[in-house]
């Protein structure tokens, strides 16, 4: 059986769950442990990628390049990756991150927008780093559309393209169809990134692996946007049970998850009403905290906001719709009274 390459994104996707509040000390301690455990790739950046620290996405407490530098300085083996969303980040930040020492960039777009990534794949390859494509909100499109989009990324120089279940809305059959379509269409690697809104992050990651996914994401304790991600330590344990030895030290992972990451969480990530309704409606997970704030401010039910955003098929970058929807629902409620 092929051994999948695991990327731990606690220090990127997890950033959404801690309101982008990572300190250099946290970065140093988590990266050192992941490195010691021999996790091959560790992603570090604002949750929305390079230059994501904005009023719309949420400000980071510490300058992102200081955090990335700390990460690079804390590794002996692992590759440090960052996320890059075209339009949020620009070539300037990509160059700067490469100067600091990242070894991979993960270029994320809504899953029908691959054509905007060309210049960034070309730049990443010209700068000599690994370039990975991230097809966000992959549940919204069928396998053939995703395969076409992935082929575009391949033609721009991508080394791997991910099916990204941003809303945690996919079930194993949907994951299988999508991953196998990419495996068939591409000659490069295929990856899978899960969210746990339907409680399927491990099951979906295993399904992706069984369809041939070469790269799989996780986060310690599942710390990530919304319902969180595939817990890295649980994934490693599950793969071990399947006789797939990733070479990662499970006991170190369990310790860092328990002793360093769990205390960062204001509350454990559970599949509560908001997370389940978000996954069920197919709403982007990083909208969760914004939806909760808007619901509280305008006195409406977060699930209703999720349902409406799902109907409108809101995508990353359309966070301002959350307020629009909350105001409209509040007005309707007032009319009824
Ligand atoms: C804004 C980037 C986003 O959080 C990427 C990601 O992890 C996802 O879509 O799930
Ligand atoms: Mn994610």
Automatic annotation (TrEMBL):
NCBIfam families: 4OH_2_O_val_ald, PRK08195.1. The lineage of its organism: Bacteria, Bacillati, Bacillota, Bacilli, Bacillales. GO terms for molecular function: 2-isopropylmalate synthase activity; 4-hydroxy-2-oxovalerate aldolase activity; manganese ion binding. Keywords: Aromatic hydrocarbons catabolism, Lyase, Manganese, Metal-binding. InterPro entries: 2-IPM_HCS-like, 4OH_2_O-val_aldolase, Aldolase_TIM, DmpG_comm, DRE_TIM_HOA, PYR_CT. Substrate binds at residues 12-13, 166, 193, 284. This is 4-hydroxy-2-oxovalerate aldolase. HAMAP family: HOA (MF_01656).
């Amino acid at each position: 059986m092929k051994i999948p390459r695991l990327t731990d994104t606690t220090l990127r996707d997890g950033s959404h769950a801690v309101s982008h509040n990572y300190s250099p000390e946290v970065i140093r301690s988590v990266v050192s442990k992941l490195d010691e455990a021999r996790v091959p790739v560790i992603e570090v950046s604002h949750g929305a990628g390079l230059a994501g620290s904005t009023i719309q996405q949420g400000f980071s407490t510490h300058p992102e390049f200081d955090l990335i530098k700390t990460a690079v300085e804390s590794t002996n083996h692992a590759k440090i990756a960052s996320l890059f969303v075209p339009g949020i980040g620009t070539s300037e930040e990509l160059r700067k991150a490469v100067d600091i020492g990242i070894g991979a960039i993960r270029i994320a777009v809504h899953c029908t927008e691959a054509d905007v990534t060309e210049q960034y794949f070309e730049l990443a390859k010209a700068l000599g780093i690994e370039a990975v494509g991230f097809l966000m909100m992959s549940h919204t499109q069928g396998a053939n559309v995703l395969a076409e989009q992935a082929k575009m990324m391949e033609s721009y120089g991508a080394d791997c393209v991910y099916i990204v279940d941003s809303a945690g809305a996919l079930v194993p059959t949907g994951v299988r169809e999508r991953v196998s379509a990419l495996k068939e269409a591409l000659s490069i690697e295929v990856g899978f990134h899960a969210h746990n809104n339907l409680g399927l992050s491990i099951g979906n990651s295993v399904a992706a692996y069984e369809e041939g996914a070469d790269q799989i994401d996780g986060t310690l304790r599942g710390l990530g946007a919304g319902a969180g991600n595939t817990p890295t330590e649980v994934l490693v344990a599950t793969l071990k049970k399947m006789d797939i030895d990733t070479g990662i030290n499970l006991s170190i992972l369990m310790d860092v998850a328990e002793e360093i990451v769990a205390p960062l969480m204001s509350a454990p990530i559970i599949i509560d009403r908001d997370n389940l309704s978000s996954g069920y409606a197919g709403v982007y997970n990083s909208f969760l905290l914004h939806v909760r704030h808007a619901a509280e401010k305008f006195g409406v039910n977060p699930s209703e906001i999720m349902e409406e955003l799902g109907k409108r098929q809101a995508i990353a970058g359309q966070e301002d719709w959350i307020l629009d929807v909350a105001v409209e629902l509040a007005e309707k409620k007032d009319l009824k009274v």
